Amino acid sequence: MLRLDVGTLGFTTAMTSMAGGIVFAAYGMARHHGRRWSSFSASALCYGLGLLLIIHLDTLPPVLAILGGNLMLALAAVALHACCAQLSEQPLRPWLYLGFVVAYVGGVFYFLYGTDSIGGRIVVVSLLRVPLFLHAALMVRRRRRVEPGIGMALLQAVLGGWACLLVGRSLGVAMAAPIREFVSMEGFLALYYVMSGLGYVVMVIALMLIDADRLAAMLGKEVSRQAEALETQIARQLQAQDDLRRSEADLRAILDNMPDIFYRTDRDGRLLMVSRSVESLLGYTVDEVLGRDAAFYHGLPDSRANLVAALEAAGGSIIDYELQLQHKDGRTLWASTSSRFYYDADGQRVGTEGVVRLIEERKRNELFIRENRALIQAMLDASSDAIMLFRPDGTLLAVNEVLAGRFGRQASELTGSCLWDMFPPDVAKARQETVSRVVETGQAVHFLDRRGELYLDNSIYPAPGADGIPDKVAVYSRDITAQTLAEARVTTYLAELERSNAELEQFAYVASHDLREPLRMISSYLSLLERRYGPRLEGDGLEFLAFARDGARRMDNLVLDLLEFSRIERKGSPIIAMEAEPGLRQALRHLAPAIVESATAVEVASGGESPWVMGDPDQVIRLFQNLIGNAVKYRAADRTPRISVSWRRDGGEWEFTVADNGIGIEAQYFERIFRIFQRLHTPDRYEGTGIGLAICKKIVERHGGRIWVDSVPGEGSAFHFTLPAAS
């Protein structure tokens, strides 16, 4: 009776299985990169690892030894079934495999914790694998009908035999006495472990035989195919030889009548064959060139050698290779050749052959095109706008350096590339739609485009082709970033300025009204003090009272002028077409008492065209009144005051001048005098609030004009201002 220790038997079987798995993996990686043999390798390795865990039951926890070991045995059975399905080209069934593993582990778990029975576990794990192995054997049997061979038969026998061993093992355990200690096995159980250890070894042999059979079948098919192809090729070559002999006469006739030159040389470059067109193109007869070195009619000494070098560099064949040839009369002509090396039956190079065509007209056209292209490029680059010409599919035909610079490239690099590849997909799609619309309608499109921090003014024009139908588009793109940003800043500044001016005007208006009320109260109480206590006051008291009343009066005048200054924009009348001279006369009437008192001579220009301007009549009168009043006020004490008022037309505006012979102004104060509250003299010399000229400046600016002064200290001043001319 065969009786073996479980540890020894199990360890030997595990090592045998794992060795088989390593052989599977090694052979599979060497022959098929592991794809066909990986499942067999995994099955053998899992089986060996599961046995190692089970035989270490005394040293490992039961959960790891029994449950873990039997789980690996279940995975080994699943992997073996899967690899047989792959070998038989059958679909895998993941849910079937998952159900098998769950049932397998569930049975082990039950006979470990529900009913602690070694025999029960052996029966469950044996019988559950029987259907899997039988189905795998059935799949291999079906495959044998398509792929007969010893390997397939051996694999089927191993799978079927293993299933029979599992059934026998289950029956043996069921009929024997209960197993109390899993220490030794005898009889059929020992035979099972011996045979299962050899199972994977036999599988290795079977799969190697299958692989060899498949390789032999594949080689046989390839040999048959090559033989058939060779027979076909031989038949074709025989037919080609017959066709070649029949066409040689036709070819000679064609060559003799072709407009280009056909030639053939030997290994040393001597002409063996040349078509009769050499007579009309180069002036030589066929007899004059046959047998001579082909280099004799090349235009340059190294031309023939360069042609051979170009053929060698291009792999023995070139197309449209340009060279210069020598005409019999001495002229040098441009030609193009498509040539190749030809070889003998042994593959040895024996000469050169090809076709030569004169391209004098093409070279002239190319020169003309290059000159025009250079001229067009120079014109494009002279523009400060970005310019490009392209087809609707985006192929760039011409680009200037300004546009190329936007993409960080050279114009020569962009020509021929696709414009749409330089934009994001959504932007490219929108541009394509716009270009298509321009081509279809023939109407130009203009739009503003913002790209990041750039503002571009783009214009797209259709460009007609040879038939007059647009097939290209020209784009002109101007960078208006600086202009746009400047306009935005100006708009912001103007809005802020208008808001600030409105607030200042409102403040001045309110402040002027509110300030006059306490001033009137001060003046009233000063008058009351003078009436009631005047007789009691002595010299200093009366002087102090006079100072206070004068200060209140000057403060009131200052508030009134400030109020007038604030009303220029808010309370001004509409600007209309008006005659300026009546306004001047009205201002002189208002100033008549001061003019008479100071004995001032006022001279007003007469004759010529009467000035019509766009103005606010009341403010124009106030403008003349302030300027003439200042001339009267700041008169020189040592001479008779004289004032002259004149005007002249200057394009779309009238320029007025109010000149005097008064005290004059130093040049450093020319700008200062037009600011509010700026005075050059103390009130005891010349009365005033320092607002008059500021009011003049504000009036002129409201009308869109300018005001300035020319003066020589001690000699007089001339104030100039402009107003828009009425149409």
Structure description:
This protein has 20 helices and 19 strands. It has 727 residues and is α+β, with helices and mostly antiparallel strands. Strands 4-3-7-6-5 form a five-stranded antiparallel sheet, with helices on both faces. Strands 9-8-12-11-10 form a five-stranded antiparallel sheet, sandwiched between helices. A five-stranded mixed sheet has the order 14-16-17-19-18. Strand 10 and strand 11 (454-464) form a beta hairpin. Helix 3 (62-87) packs parallel to helix 5 and helix 5 (118-146) runs antiparallel to helix 6 (150-175). The chain is flat, with a radius of gyration of 57 Å. It starts with a strand and ends with a strand. The relative contact order is 0.04.
